[in-house]
Amino acid sequence: MGKVKIKKSDVWIDMTPMSDVMVLLLTFFMLTSTFVKNEPVKVVTPGSVSEIKVPEKDVLNILVNKDGRIFMSMDKVTDLEAALQTITAENGISLNGEQIKKFKDDAMFGAPLDKLSDYLSQDKSDMSAVLPTLGIPTDSVKMSDGTMGKSEFQQWVSAAKEVNPDIKLAIKSDQNTPYKVVKKVMDELRDMEENRYYLITSYKKVED
């Protein structure tokens, strides 16, 4: 008796629902993701067993590179622009619209106030190359009456706190940064009665 052959039929799977899901997921991640700007100054943070997370919003990041130069960044552009307006008004610095836009677009800032206008007048590519050679000074500024006022570092911190009282401070230093430089930063904050801040480190597991 001959075998009955079963006719094979092609299997067709409708992939339209899967495509819709992929598009929805892609759209979701694009809308909710925070794009990180390229940082011209790089640091390698020391390891720590602490699991305390640094807030992602309302943060003034204080970055200290291995050469001991200090830079800052703020997550809110509106706060950054307002702080810049405060600083320039207090120090008699005039910036044009293009310079202000460059300042807001920069991943971080760190030019001394007497070089700020010249720095922001350069091409963006030149700014990225020059910034690591600068840094925010921590020396007290001599006032017109001869007294010593706040350092430029303290002025920026004060301006940030003024425009956003809820802003948190986070110090991120390179593992090779001299301790005296980090201590100087903490002393500057202590003089302002800013005694609460985060120290950013890389997570390190506890060794057995």
Describe the structure.
This protein has helices spanning 16-32, 77-91, 97-105, 116-120, 124-130, 152-163, 179-191; strands spanning 47-48, 59-64, 70-74, 140-142, 148-151, 168-173, 198-199, 202-203. The protein contains seven helices and eight strands, in the order H-E-E-E-H-H-H-H-E-E-H-E-H-E-E. The chain is elongated. The longest helix has 17 residues, at 16-32.
Quick structural overview:
This protein has one domain (45-201). 38% of the residues lie in helices and 14% in strands. The chain has helices spanning 16-32, 77-91, 97-105, 116-120, 124-130, 152-163, 179-191; strands at 47-48, 59-64, 70-74, 140-142, 148-151, 168-173, 198-199, 202-203.
Keywords:
two-stranded parallel ribbon, alpha/beta, elongated, 208 residues
Tell me the fraction of residues in β-strands, as a range: 5-15%
Distance between the termini: 74 Å
Largest sheet: 4 strands, mixed
| Order of strands across the main sheet | 3-2-6-7
Tell me the number of helical segments per DSSP (H or I, 4 or more residues long).
7
Q: Provide the helix percentage.
A: 25-40%
Give the structural class.
Answer: alpha/beta
Low-confidence stretches: 46-50, 202-208
Shape: elongated
Using only C-alpha atoms, the radius of gyration works out to: 25 Å
Count the domains.
1
Tally of DSSP β-strands: 8
- The residue-averaged pLDDT reads 79
Order of helices and strands: HEEEHHHHEEHEHEE
Membrane topology: Single-pass membrane protein; Single-pass type II membrane protein
Protein name: Transport energizing protein, ExbD/TolR family
Subcellular location: Cell membrane
InterPro entries: ExbD
